[in-house]
Amino acid sequence: MTTVSAEELENYAKAVLAIEQSRQAAYSEIQQIINEEQVPNFSCTQADTIYALPGNVRDIAVNYCERAKDIGETQGLTMTQFNAITVTAQSDSELLKRIQNELVRLQ
């Protein structure tokens, strides 16, 4: 993905904000289950990181990943589109700046 339209950018930023709320809720729920231990890292795009989690924590992670996917789709982005924007922003400082500005505008 080389260019991100203004509409895609707005949809991405809205999705990021909604997903972050869901991520924090899942993190908090996992933290309560594992007590003082550090919450394990996992990625919705890397199934092996989810399968490595303990059963009850895995269920929370899977639910979070499904919610994140639904949030992105509600904003008109497939997981592929959402992930492509995320990856592009990691190496495209101009896109990252546009995303940050949009996040500030929406908050």
Structure description:
This protein has 107 residues and is mainly α. 76% of the residues lie in helices and 0% in strands. It contains 5 helices and no strands. The protein has helices at 6-34, 47-51, 55-74, 79-91, 93-106. Helix 1 (6-34) runs antiparallel to helix 3 and helix 1 packs across helix 5 (93-106). The protein starts with 5 loop residues before the first helix and ends with a helix. The mean pLDDT is 92.
Features:
single chain, 107 residues, mainly alpha, 5 helices, elongated
Radius of gyration: 15 Å
**Helicity range of the residues?**
over 70%
Shape: elongated
| SSE pattern | HHHHH
Secondary structure class reads: mainly alpha
Total DSSP E strands: 0
Number of helices: 5
Low-confidence stretches: none
- The share of residues in extended strands comes to under 5%
Mean pLDDT comes to 92
Q: What is the structure about, briefly put?
A:
The chain is mainly α and 107 residues long.
Map the helices and strands.
Elements: H1 6-34, H2 47-51, H3 55-74, H4 79-91, H5 93-106
Helix pairs in contact: 1-3, 1-5, 4-5
